Structures are given as structure tokens and as C-alpha cells.
Amino acid sequence: MLPESFVNRMKEMLGEEYEAFSEALKEERHQALRINPLKAEPEDFARTGPFSLTPVPWAKTGFYYDKAQQPGKHPLHEAGVYYIQEPSAMAPAQFLQARPGERVLDLCAAPGGKSTQIAAQMKGGGLLVCNEIHPARAKILSENIERMGIRNAVVTNETPERLAERFSGFFDRILVDAPCSGEGMFRKNEEACGEWSLENVEMCAERQDTILDSAQQMLRSGGLLVYSTCTFAPQENEGSINRFLDRFPDFTLVNVDMSEGFAAGRQDWVPGGREELARTMRLWPHKIRGEGHFLAVLKKEGSVSETERMPVRRDGIKGLSVKEYADYLEFENQYLKIRQEGIFIAFGDQLYLAPQGMPPLKGLKVLRPGLHLGTRKKNRFEPSHALALALKPEEVCFSCDLPSDSREIYGYLNGETFREDVGVYRGEGGKGWHLITADGYSVGWGKLAGGIMKNHYPKGLRKNGAAEAVCSIRQMYEIRHGTDREISACARRRDFLSEYV
Ligand SMILES: C[S@@+](CC[C@H](N)C(=O)[O-])C[C@H]1O[C@@H](n2cnc3c(N)ncnc32)[C@H](O)[C@@H]1O
């Protein structure tokens, strides 16, 4: 049952349109995925891949699928070929328009729907900082960054205030996909309705003001800030933007081309609302095929020269001995056809390749300072799962391809070994590390020895393990909206979570 005060407010806001809105909330949710251009050419995959897909009009790489097809359970999901995402949640990153070479911050990033979309726009070039305040959700974010084969992302677990102390005027673009009262989740979700209250709407609006204060501090002059929520409450939408523009007159709302079905934000829904608010956007479930969203694109006045910028790292080696670096190079020479370039950083026995242009991160909680290359073992180097997912078969010396509908690929994802005569091999006579691929897309490592391909798919991701943990609707709601309760049972249900953001 929808909360009474919510219904009254919506009736007042929508008038005659309320009926259509309330009918839409009774319909099935729309299911969609976003194809990962870092791995597959979206139009080709949409045409020739295993699912029947139709385009999401406002997202270049977004497609609706039929629920019965269950792409979240398909091996190509584990290969990061696509990300399951609520269709209206694809709009904010689309308007952020990040470009290769830029410095971009996704301030409220878990579980990573929009971060992975931004990374695709950046094509591996530049610096993407993905931040999440809640540690368990930051871990899920990090796993999704890994699954999608993203090389240039740093994942942090900080408060917006702490980041703002360090990165004043640093970023070219910032996305604030704010924690909100989540009214866009009400469709077919009794428990989300139960969590709703007027007090919570107020509390969310206050929290959004604080987050936006930090965000604006980190944006360079001339930079772009996109603000979004998945709620309908004006205090958290037009209200948050109106209050923001009162506090920061050096920002203006950008007049963008709206997609068909999007509606303009409303100045009359908030006290003292300025006319400019018509440049904000509302996605309504009765006007588009999606759950609903609000978004605003803001520009900070001015421009900044390169010389004003904070010093950043270029290529180099940090925290590892010459011998340890040599062990890595031995692996690279033996197994890779490409040379990795950037900043090599060791954290304990873990080796990372940080993106060029990464600022000093000392003192911040960092989950991954870039691409995880692997682990330094005694006298050798062992490659990481993240590296496998960032590599293509043509970039390695040895690979073994399994059809995505074969028993063997499901066996591999369950942690099984397989015999040498299974699969199609690239690279002759290779013993040792093989990139295992499904229909040509990397899914992990195997190590060939004595005619057997030993399984190096991470134990925690295996299909018979924690991946089957059941998430209650309540837990999903908490993950989406940032309450503090225990969410470990959901930690591996990445696809499941992403359907809600
Ligand atoms: C709407 S969700 C983000 C969804 C994400 N952008 C995506 O597309 O997958 C909002 C996030 O803000 C985080 N959050 C909660 N309180 C916060 C705060 N005070 N400051 C920053 N982030 C916060 C929540 O943990 C939650 O992960």
C-alpha cells in the first residue's frame, strides 16, 4: 500500500495526471541492461548476442530485455559484457558526457551502475574516482568495476567532506547520484513503501545539501556537475537544486536536449522556485519505460588553465623492489602481448597499475588505486582476476575459448577444472596461464599443467558459493538507500542489486 501522505502529495503535484501515474505503479518493472563498449560493440552485440534486445531511447548502450531471458545468470554477465541497470538510471551518466583524458568523480557510486557507464565513455583514458561512503557497498562497487574490465578507476571509501578537503577544484566532471527517499522504487515493492516517511524525505534533502556542498568544492571552474535522484519528492529534486543555486550563484543550470517522454522540472513545486528549474528533468513511470528519476546538469562559472592544476603522478614504480618488478615483467614477457604502462604501485603483496594523472591518495581509504594486476608471491607473480577481465584474447599469448552455452563454461564458473582437449586454443604449446574466454570474452584465468586446466576463477564468485545468497526486498532497499544495516548476504549479488539503481 502506498503511504497516504505520499499519495496526497502526488495527487496535489500531478492533478489529472495522477491516475496514469498510479496505474503505472501497478505494472511490471521494465528490465534493461547496458552493453559494455570496453568489451563489445553495442549494436553488434544487440543484434547477434544471445538476448533479444530493444533500445532504451535515452541511453546509447542501453537495451530492454525480456525478464524470462535472465541475462544476470548468463556467463557473459560474469564476463562483464553488460551491466543490468534500471533504464531511467541510465540517464544521468548520459548527460554527464565524460570524455577520455578527463578527471571525473562519481561521488555516491555503489554499486557502480553509473560509474561503469562513465568509464565506458572515458574509454580507459583519464582518471575516474568512484567513491562510496559505506564499506560493504564500496566492496560491491569495486567488484563491478573489476567485472567490467575498467582500468582507469580508483575506488575510495570516504565521506564527501574528506574528499573535498583533498581535491579542491580538481575534477572536470562530477556526478552526485544522491541517496534519496527512493519513491521510484515503490512499483511492486511493499517494503520500500513501508520505509517511507515525511521525516525521511526531510532528512534526505538535508543530506543532499551537504553532499552537494562538498561536490561543488571539488569541481574546477567551468566544470560540469550532474545531480540525480530516483525519487519524486520536490524537496529532494527541484528543492535541492533551488537551495544549491541560492548558496552557489556561480553555478547555472544547463539547457540540455531532453529525450522524448522526459518532463521539465517544476518551479511551482518548491517555495521560491526559480524559472531556471524548468531546465531540470523528470522521468516519470507513466511517461517513459522506466521507474522514474530526476536530474539536473549544472555548470560552474569560468575556466581553468593547466598550470593551476594539482600535481599528479605520471609513469613510475612505487613501493616495490627491482626484484619484485622484475618478477612482474617476467610474467608480462611470458604471457602478455601488450606492455602495461602507468604507475606501478604495491600495497603489501598486491600490485596495481594506477591511472596516469592519479593524485596522491595518502591518508584516504582506498579500495583499489587502479587496475589490480596481481599478487607478488615468493619469486613469482600471480595475475589477478581483475587483470583477466581487463584483457582481450588477442592481448595474451595463450587463451582457451568455451562456448557461452556449454556445460564446460558453467563448470568453470563453478570452480571445476577441465581437460586440455576441451575448448578452442590460441597460442601453441603453452603451459601455464591461459585466459579463459566465453564466446571470445574473458571470464578469468586457468593454468594448464599435465593436460588439466586448473581453475583460477575466484572462490568468492563461484556460482555454487555466495552468489546464490538470497536477498530480501528489505535488504535491497537498504543497499539502495544507504541505511546502515548488515548487507553481507547480498555482497555477491551484484546483478541483483544493480537492477535497482
Ligand atoms: C543512489 S545510490 C548510488 C547508486 C549508484 N550511483 C549507481 O548507479 O549504482 C546512493 C549512494 O549514496 C551513498 N550514501 C549514503 N549516504 C551518503 C552520504 N552521506 N554521502 C555520500 N554518499 C552517501 C549510499 O550508500 C548509496 O550507495
Automatic annotation (TrEMBL):
What keywords does the record list, in alphabetical order? Cytoplasm, Methyltransferase, RNA-binding, S-adenosyl-L-methionine, Transferase
- Identify the Pfam families for this entry: Methyltr_RsmB-F, Methyltr_RsmF_N, Methyltranf_PUA, RsmF_methylt_CI
Q: Where is the SAM-dependent MTase RsmB/NOP-type domain?
A: 21-301
Keyword Repeat attached: no
Tell whether ATP-binding is among the UniProt keywords: no
Q: Name one GO molecular function term.
A: RNA binding
The biological process GO terms on file are: RNA methylation; RNA processing
InterPro entries linked to this entry: Methyltr_RsmF_N, MeTrfase_RsmB-F_NOP2_cat, MeTrfase_RsmB-F_NOP2_dom, Nol1_Nop2_Fmu_2, Nop2p, RCMT, RsmB/NOL1/NOP2-like_CS, RsmF_methylt_CI
Q: Which domain of life is it from?
A: Bacteria
Q: Which CDD domains match?
A: AdoMet_MTases, RsmF_methylt_CTD1
The signal peptide, as residue positions, is none
Active-site residues per Swiss-Prot or TrEMBL entry? C230
Family as reported in the entry's similarity comment: Belongs to the class I-like SAM-binding methyltransferase superfamily. RsmB/NOP family.
Its name, as the record gives it, is NOL1/NOP2/sun family putative RNA methylase
Upper classification of the source organism reads:
Bacteria, Bacillati, Bacillota, Clostridia, Lachnospirales
